[in-house]
Design goal:
The complex is a heterotrimer of chains A (about 70), B (about 600) and C (about 190).
Chain A (H helix, E strand, L loop, with lengths): L2 H6 L6 H20 L4 H20 L11
Helix pairs in contact in A: 2-3
Chain B lengths: L1 H26 L7 H27 L25 H29 L10 H30 L1 H4 L8 H9 L1 H13 L13 H4 L2 H30 L12 H32 L13 H35 L6 H14 L18 H10 L1 H15 L8 H24 L1 H7 L3 H31 L5 H27 L14 H31 L31 E2 L14 E2 L5 H6 L5
Antiparallel strand pairs in B: 1-2
Helix pairs in contact in B: 1-2, 3-4, 3-6, 3-19, 4-9, 4-11, 4-17, 6-9, 7-9, 9-10, 10-11, 10-12, 11-14, 11-15, 11-17, 12-14, 15-17, 15-18, 17-18, 18-19
Chain C lengths: L14 H31 L9 H27 L2 H32 L5 H32 L8 H26 L1
Helix pairs in contact in C: 1-4, 1-5, 2-3, 2-5, 3-4, 4-5
Classes of the chains: A mainly alpha (about 70), B mainly alpha (about 600), C mainly alpha (about 190).
């Protein structure tokens, strides 16, 4: 990674992702214990969002065909 | 030597794994030794040990521990018994291994037909018959799934796209060396009394039968691992290793067919792995997936199993389509007709293959509402299949056909698969299928598809690429005798089976009602005739490999890349990277050249005549 | 040894790209396995969850696995910058968190054996899903341990690809748990 690109990255990379994952997990837990109707659909959506966060922020899915990290 | 190391390391792995499982069992209060639980757990360790011993450790894994990898020094025929990463060596390893498996399974078929010649249990009792039948089916399915892709997908595909090797040579060797454990497991199963479920291994029977059934599950699971690894390698190779100018629509159709097959394999093989795993867990870990008394569902097995195994039919037949179209174009001396439609047909089959599986389950007790959609989807899949046929027929039309041995086999595929495909339409029809389920009509149908299509194409491919692989020609006259003998024997065996099926002859039985005896005898005679045809092939194959006349670089006058380099090809295939200039099928187009190979003698090889 | 680096062939695709495509195709294939397991779970159990499954342990091990994904990410980030020390440090943290996760699963298994043994409908699904996932976690831990040892000795200073591959596999196992956790504990 070049220096310019390194500077562009936030100082603590991945923090936004891990915080949003933690929040989403908490929401999942609350949705589940609140016993509301439609929780299956909500849990599915939240799981998909969490997976998308990991795939894009942690695993850099968009870089499959590229050189950079 | 390598193999000895592998066996020893595999045995050590088994002992370590067994000790671990036994310790866990003892700790949880169960009897330490129970053959199925211990073996199922230890199999993973034995597989790992075998792979490490056979070469993964020396040539691959040592750098992970900071040591230098061994340099590869094996030469000559010993390379075929070593962890060699040359795709050409691996292709030959696959070919010989699976031909051996094919002939073993063929001998089992002879035994079955001998038993079925007369009413009563003559030489085999019902249990023995079912074991032989199951092993025949399992081994033949393994051959059909892996032989063509493994042998020619490895040997020819990288050369056809102008690459020096596969994308992951070491992974390629690993995928081959996963095959011997499959043979070990099948042999173990046979020696321990076999299994009676057929190759489909339906639960709940497969959960309850003797220990041989477990080894069937382990064998299928291991072959699945090999298929997935091999498929991944092929996909990445086609995506990333194509020579300059080798655009997607300049790929030879054989490459397309193997590519699509590999995608199917990569996606769906996981499901048969899962099906086997769930059965193994039910057998050894006390789970109840398929035990209705405790809340399990036997039908679940059929769904998971056929979700792989119907796409697997296309894994078996798409390479055959690719080979057939390849031969038809080269030996009609015409460009492949409707090339893009043929590619579309392959992709269409791939897309639809995942939505037809339940047509195997019309009589299984599945929800009735699902019958019509699966009837419709199954019949729809004949449309992309039709593209392939139209492409072949359009190429033959007004072609200057050269009836070489490979071409004869390609025409044989077209004839046989037409019958197999048309009878498939009947079987997709729910009312007919309910009558014909589990009869010899089904047996005849899938033999027409897999033996008449897949295996005929495999033999065509062997005749076609033998000169390239060995540098020697096969005997042409013996080849033609083999083809006609096999063709007549095949049809004499399986055409009467349709009638037997319509008369109500059931599959998977050693004995039958006396009224069916004469037809069964006729089928058996046809079967023995078919079986003997392979003696000619074997004689020709072995003799030609040792003593056949030297092959020129391009004995067929074909335009694809593998024929523009020496026979057999040098280690790195091409002296310099080839540059592809036009599509591979430009026969009769003045001045058309497929590729520029630099110093490799392109021009004279194009002029060489065809030995027909 | 036939590798593209040693042969005079030129490809339009670099070794790194080839490796990345292969790794993602492997994930794609594995996704099919886990999808099949999830479908099996819903076929057998519908949308029910056993009341006796421990919500506390479930939440704790989920949090641990998520945290380990973050440390793994930092390890890869450091490896791409060539920072050997930081790579090693974050890899060891990931290893520790992963080991705690496995211990958590083992602890839960011990409890679950009496609450819903494998011979029951829910036990069948529960032990199979957590078992297959834990198997992947353990293989991931073996991978990470090798990476940690090699990174410590500076073998990845020039080429961070092994670290990237191991970490991506770890993330993938985490993605699987993102779907398994609600399917086993929350519905």
């Amino acid at each position: 990674m070049t220096e310019i690109a390194a500077k562009a990255v936030e100082r603590s990379p991945g923090v936004t992702a891990i915080v949003s994952l933690a929040v989403l997990t908490a929401v999942e837990f609350v949705v589940s214990s609140a016993d509301i109707s439609g929780s299956l659909a909500m849990l599915t959506v939240i799981a998909l969002v969490k997976a998308a966060v990991i795939l894009s922020a942690f695993m850099h899915l968009r870089n499959v065909l590229r050189e950079e990290g | 030597m390598t193999i000895v190391r592998g066996v020893v390391a595999g045995a050590v792995g088994y002992v370590l794994g067994a000790a671990l499982i036994m310790a866990i069992r003892a700790a949880s209060g169960a009897a330490a030794w129970e053959v199925e639980s211990v073996t199922a757990g230890a199999w993973l360790f034995a597989l790992t040990g075998w792979l490490l011993g056979v070469g993964v450790w020396r040539y691959w894994a040592r750098p992970w521990f900071g040591r230098p990898a061994d340099t590869y020094t094996t030469t000559g025929w010993r390379r075929y018994f070593d962890f060699d990463t040359d795709h050409k060596v691996i292709g030959v390893q696959y070919l010989i291994t699976f031909l051996t498996m094919f002939f073993m399974a063929g001998l089992f078929a002879m035994l079955m037909r001998y038993e079925l010649m007369g009413v009563g249990e003559d030489i085999l009792n019902s249990d023995q018959y079912n074991s032989i039948m199951s092993l025949h089916g399992t081994m033949m399915v393994f051959v059909a799934v892996a032989a063509t892709v493994g042998a020619f997908g490895n040997y020819v595909l990288p050369i056809m796209i102008g690459a020096d090797d596969m994308a992951y040579p070491k992974l390629n060797a690993l995928s081959f060396w996963l095959v011997p454990p499959v043979l070990v497991a099948l042999t173990a199963s046979f020696l321990l009394g076999g299994y009676d479920t057929g190759w489909t291994g339906y639960a709940p029977l497969s959960v309850k039968n003797d220990v041989g059934g477990l080894f069937f599950n382990l064998a299928f699971f291991s072959l699945g691992l090999s298929s997935i690894v091999g498929a991944l390698n092929i996909i990445v190779t086609v995506i990333t290793m194509r020579a300059r100018g080798m655009t997607w629509f300049r790929l030879p159709i054989f490459v397309w067919s193997i590519f699509v097959t590999a995608i199917l394999s990569l996606i769906f093989t996981q499901f048969v792995g899962l099906a086997m795993l769930l059965v193994i867990l039910d057998r050894t870990a006390g789970t109840v997936f398929f035990d209705p008394a405790s809340g399990g569902q036997p039908l679940l097995y059929q769904n998971v199993f056929w979700f792989y195994s119907h796409p697997a039919v296309y894994i078996m037949i798409l390479p055959a389509f690719g080979i057939t179209l390849e031969m038809v174009s080269h030996f009609s001396r015409k460009p492949l007709f409707a090339y893009r439609w043929a590619v579309g047909g392959l992709l269409g089959i791939m897309g639809m293959s995942s939505v037809v599986w339940a047509h195997h389950m019309f009589t299984s007790g599945m929800a009735e509402a699902l019958r019509k959609p699966f009837l419709a989807s199954t019949e729809l899949i004949s449309i992309p299949t039709g593209f392939i046929f139209l492409s072949a027929l359009g190429t033959l039309w007004l072609g200057r056909i050269r009836y070489t041995v490979p071409m004869l086999f390609a025409l044989g595929v077209l004839f046989n698969f037409l019958i197999g495909g048309l009878t498939g339409v009947f079987l997709a029809d729910v009312p007919v299928d309910i009558q014909l389920q589990d009869t010899y009509f089904v047996v005849a149908h899938f033999h027409y598809v897999i033996l008449g299509g897949g295996i005929f194409a495999l033999f065509g491919a062997i005749y076609y690429w033998f000169p390239k692989m060995t540098g020697r020609m096969m005997n042409n006259r013996l080849g033609k005798v083999h083809f006609w003998w096999m063709m007549v024997g095949f049809n004499a065996t399986f055409l009467p089976m349709f009638i037997l099926g319509l008369q109500g002859m059931n599959r998977r039985i050693a004995d039958y009602t006396p009224g069916l005896e004469s037809a069964n005898r006729a089928v058996s005679m046809g079967g023995f005739f078919l079986g003997t045809s392979f003696v000619i092939f074997l004689a020709n194959f072995i003799w030609s490999w040792v003593k056949g006349p030297p092959a020129p670089d391009n004995p067929w006058g074909a335009r694809t890349l593998e024929w523009q380099i020496p026979s057999p090809p040098p280690h790195e295939n091409f002296e310099i990277p080839p540059i592809v200039l036009a599509d591979p099928y430009g026969y009769g187009e003045p001045g058309s050249v497929h590729a520029d190979l630099g110093g490799n003698g392109r021009s004279e090889s194009l002029e060489e005549g065809v030995q027909a | 040894m036939t590798t593209t680096e040693t042969l005079p062939m030129e490809h339009t695709t670099s070794r790194l790209q080839i490796n990345r495509i292969g790794l993602w195709l492997f994930f794609f294939s594995e996704t099919m396995l886990f999808a099949g397991i999830l479908v099996t779970r819903f076929t057998l159990l519908g949308t029910e969850v056993h009341e006796e499954v421990s919500q506390t342990i479930g939440l704790i091990i989920t949090a641990i696995l998520l945290a380990s994904s973050y440390t793994a990410f930092r390890a890869e980030h450091a490896a791409h910058r060539g920072d050997r020390e930081e790579t090693t440090r974050y890899l060891s943290m990931t290893l520790g968190l992963g080991a705690v996760f496995v211990a958590g699963v083992a602890f839960e298994w011990a409890e679950a054996f009496s609450a819903f043994p494998p011979g029951t409908e829910f036990g069948t699904v529960f032990f199979t899903m957590t078992g297959i996932h834990a198997f992947h976690v353990i293989t991931g831990l073996i991978f990470l341990a090798l990476l940690w040892n090699n990174s410590r000795q500076g073998r990845y200073d020039a080429d961070a690809w092994p670290v990237e591959a191991g970490v991506k596999y770890w993330h993938f196992v985490d993605v699987v748990w993102v779907f398994f956790y609600p399917a086993l504990y929350l519905l």
